[in-house]
């Protein structure tokens, strides 16, 4: 699978982070393994891409074994270029960490052979991700052209993403802006943390409803870092309810009460403005009713 470079003067590892939506560590590893070439030649991570360069992404051996798994994927919208799905809580987006058969990618491969392959076999169609226990709207690319355009839209903040979350505690202000850079924790690779040396991360918060010990909020992302909302909320002292990683309390199997509620973007091919909304999961709604 090949990717034609459209921008100049950027390191290849940084360039691919923006287009593949993978960690820099993951990209660096693949470059060093020789799975990512430029014009069919091995390069270093410091290589500066040039307009017209062809980046060759070679599938990993284990990627060739990704199976097709029959599953019920809630499809909100579909055409020849894209899909919008309503991901249920508990569904992992792509294979990894020992889970190679029961992920969204496995289900998408069973459903259709028409998926972008810019991210490799393990990430076919995946333009952006949601955490396993985060539910709601997600974009899927069916063609490489759509994938490249959408990846650029995400990179340049042209995609509007609004989440609903239930926070522990009664948030005092009606609105808030969290500007706190994030990086991966050295103590626990599965966690992110606020650090001055991290990547820019900005989240807008608006209170929807206050309860006695909880607050329902709307969160709009200006950046899309791993675990951004969950880390930011824990950092300001109002963690997402039932978060098994950042709440430091026992959580149920449903996981964090975090839902991708609104997705607004310009169709990569037709340029039509598109807006989708998603209802909160039943578990989320039922718990809110107990608070009322």
Could you please describe the fold and organization of this structure?
By secondary structure, the protein is α+β, with helices and mostly antiparallel strands. It has 3 domains: 2-57, RNA-binding S4 domain (Structural Genomics Hypothetical 15.5 Kd Protein In mrcA-pckA Intergenic Region, Chain A), CATH 3.10.290.10; 66-156, Pseudouridine synthase, CATH 3.30.2350; 161-259 and 286-291, Pseudouridine synthase. It contains 6 helices and 17 strands. The strands form 4 sheets. Strands 7, 8, 9, 10, 11, 14, 15, 16 and 17 form a 9-stranded mixed beta sheet that branches. A 4-stranded antiparallel beta sheet has the order 1-6-3-4. The protein has a two-stranded antiparallel ribbon with strand order 2-5. The chain is globular. It starts with a strand and ends with a helix.
Uncertain runs with pLDDT below 50, 5 residues or more?
Answer: none
The percent range for helix content is 10-25%
Oligomer: single chain
Evaluate the radius of gyration.
Answer: 19 Å
Largest sheet: 9 strands, mixed
State the shape: globular
């Amino acid at each position: 699978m090949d990717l034609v470079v459209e921008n100049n003067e950027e390191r290849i590892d940084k360039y691919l982070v923006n287009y593949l939506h993978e960690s820099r560590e993951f990209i660096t590893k693949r470059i060093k393994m020789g799975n990512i070439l430029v014009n069919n030649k091995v390069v270093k991570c410091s290589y500066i891409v040039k307009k017209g360069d062809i980046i060759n992404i070679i599938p990993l051996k284990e990627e060739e074994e990704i199976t097709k798994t029959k599953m019920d994927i809630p499809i909100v919208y579909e055409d020849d270029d894209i899909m919008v799905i309503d991901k249920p809580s508990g569904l992992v987006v792509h294979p990894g960490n020992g889970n190679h058969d029961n992920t969204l990618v496995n289900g998408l491969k069973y459903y259709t052979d028409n998926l972008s392959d810019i991210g490799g076999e393990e990430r076919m169609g995946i333009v952006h991700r949601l955490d396993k226990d985060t539910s709601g709207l997600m974009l899927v690319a069916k063609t490489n052209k759509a994938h490249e355009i959408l990846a650029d839209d995400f990179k340049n903040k042209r995609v509007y993403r609004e989440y609903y979350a239930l926070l522990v505690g009664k948030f005092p202000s009606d609105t808030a802006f969290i500007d706190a850079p994030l990086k991966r924790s050295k103590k626990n690779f599965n966690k992110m943390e606020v650090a001055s040396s991290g990547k820019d991360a900005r989240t807008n918060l608006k209170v929807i409803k206050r309860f006695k010990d909880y607050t329902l909020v709307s969160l709009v992302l200006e950046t899309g870092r791993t675990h951004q909302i969950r880390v930011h909320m824990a950092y300001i002292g109002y963690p997402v309810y039932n978060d098994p990683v950042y709440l430091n309390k026992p959580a149920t199997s449903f996981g964090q009460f975090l839902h991708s509620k609104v997705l607004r973007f310009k169709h990569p091919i037709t340029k039509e403005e598109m807006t989708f909304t998603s209802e909160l999961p039943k578990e989320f709604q039922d718990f809110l009713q107990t608070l009322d």
